[in-house]
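can u do me a favor
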């Protein structure tokens, strides 16, 4: 699943990212409510883990805004505020569940599975750019009549680019989305992955799709 973690405690956010990644999930982290709301509004996530006490925009406001916009992504609130009044308020606003800190990861994983089953989560769209296609459900990638064999990291990079096809994604956005917030990834490491990905999706004679925008980042678009 694609999970958005909105948590201002950077150490906890990183622990959550690592634990969820080891469970096979794709994780994006936001360290304040304002950025978390903007990411959640993209509709790209299957579950949102949301702290209540956040700088910028508090968690209750994020829930209220999302539900007012008819965004039905399951939301699991994470907070140290465990009074009955707070729990009722969060659930009444539209959150799907409430987990108080501290919590065990086993309980967290069980709650995530539970909230993801409570309502239909839209299946990821089949992504296509020209004759390049990617199915997030089966993880099959094809270019024309051939099937591409990608590593997990290459797949994550390509899915990110295809979901934003035509747009230039800054290098730090790619690193954060693929490896997580605060990841110690060297610039030349990202370049190396991009070269490997390009070699797989662009054989001689095929149109160029993966473009480097010097000084900014990368884009997937037809020439």
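np, heres the sequence
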């Amino acid at each position: 699943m694609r999970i958005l973690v909105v948590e201002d405690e950077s150490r906890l956010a990183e622990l959550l990212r690592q634990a969820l990644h080891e469970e096979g999930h794709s994780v994006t982290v936001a360290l304040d409510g304002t950025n978390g709301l903007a990411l959640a509004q993209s509709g790209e996530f299957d579950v949102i883990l949301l702290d209540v006490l956040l700088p910028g925009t508090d968690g209750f406001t994020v829930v209220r805004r999302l539900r007012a916009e008819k965004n039905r992504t399951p939301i699991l609130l994470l907070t140290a505020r465990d009074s009955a009044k707070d729990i009722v308020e969060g659930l009444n606003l539209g959150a799907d569940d409430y987990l108080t800190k501290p919590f065990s990861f086993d309980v967290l994983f069980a709650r995530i599975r539970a909230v993801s089953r409570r309502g239909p989560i839209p299946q990821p769209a089949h992504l296509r750019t020209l004759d390049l296609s990617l199915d997030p459900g089966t993880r099959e990638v094809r270019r024309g009549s051939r099937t591409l064999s990608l590593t997990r990291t290459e797949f994550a990079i390509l899915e990110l680019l295809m979901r934003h096809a035509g747009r230039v994604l800054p290098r730090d956005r790619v690193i954060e989305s693929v490896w997580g917030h605060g990841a110690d990834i060297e610039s030349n490491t990202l370049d190396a992955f991009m070269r490997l990905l390009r070699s797989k999706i662009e054989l001689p004679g095929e149109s160029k799709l993966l473009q480097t925008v010097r000084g900014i980042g990368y884009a997937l678009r037809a020439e």
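The mean pLDDT is 87. hope that helps!!
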